[in-house]
C-alpha cells in the first residue's frame, strides 16, 4: 500500500500543478484572510457539455468546476488502493486536497451536478458511495450537496 500511496502522491502533485478536469476558482476554504472563503464551491459535473454550461455561468472567484468522464467506478466495499489507481477519483481527491486530512479541504461546498436522467442518478449514487466509503467526514460536516436539475424533453 505504501508504494501505491507514493504513486498516488506523485500523481496528485502533477494533478495539482495542472488538473485538466478542474476549472479552479480564485478563493478557497483555506484562504483564511478572504471573507468569501466559506462561499468556495466545487461543482462535480457529468461530462464536458454539462461543465461548459456551469463554467460559463459561475462566479470565477468562488466557484470551481470538476468534469467527470463517463461513469465513475463503484467503490462500494473496495479498498483505498483501488481509488489511488483510478484516475478520475485520484484527480478528484487532488482537486479537493483531502488525501491526507479534512483540514486542507479546498472547498466548503461540494455540489454533485449530474443530469436529471437515469445515468445522472446512477453517477450521483456512485459519487455519494465514494464519499461515504472513503471520506464520510465530508458528509457528516455538511459539505456535500446535490444539485437537482430540471428535466427537459
Automatic annotation (TrEMBL):
EC number per UniProt: 5.6.2.2
SUPFAM superfamilies in the cross-refs: Type II DNA topoisomerase (SSF56719)
Catalytic activity as recorded in UniProt: ATP-dependent breakage, passage and rejoining of double-stranded DNA
GO BP of this protein: DNA topological change
Gene3D superfamilies, per the entry: 3.40.50.670
Gene name of the record: parE
Quaternary structure (record): Heterotetramer, composed of two GyrA and two GyrB chains. In the heterotetramer, GyrA contains the active site tyrosine that forms a transient covalent intermediate with DNA, while GyrB binds cofactors and catalyzes ATP hydrolysis.
Enzyme class: isomerase
CDD domains named among the record's database cross-references: TOPRIM_TopoIIA_like
Domain of life: Bacteria
Name under which the protein is recorded: DNA gyrase subunit B
Amino acid at each position: 500500500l505504501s508504494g501505491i500511496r507514493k504513486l498516488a502522491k506523485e500523481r496528485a502533485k502533477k494533478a495539482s500543478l495542472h488538473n485538466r478536469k478542474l476549472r479552479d476558482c480564485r478563493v478557497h476554504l483555506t484562504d483564511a484572510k478572504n471573507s468569501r472563503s466559506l462561499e468556495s464551491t466545487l461543482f462535480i459535473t457529468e461530462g464536458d457539455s454539462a461543465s461548459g454550461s456551469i463554467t460559463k455561468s459561475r462566479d470565477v472567484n468562488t466557484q470551481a468546476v470538476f468534469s467527470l468522464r463517463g461513469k465513475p467506478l463503484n467503490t462500494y466495499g473496495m479498498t483505498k488502493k483501488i481509488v489511488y489507481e483510478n484516475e478520475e477519483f485520484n484527480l478528484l481527491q487532488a482537486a479537493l486536497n483531502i488525501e491526507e486530512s479534512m483540514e486542507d479541504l479546498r472547498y466548503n461546498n461540494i455540489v454533485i451536478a449530474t443530469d436529471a436522467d437515469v445515468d445522472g442518478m446512477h453517477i450521483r449514487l456512485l459519487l455519494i458511495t465514494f464519499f461515504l466509503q472513503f471520506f464520510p467526514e465530508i458528509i457528516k460536516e455538511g459539505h456535500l450537496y446535490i444539485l437537482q436539475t430540471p428535466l427537459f424533453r
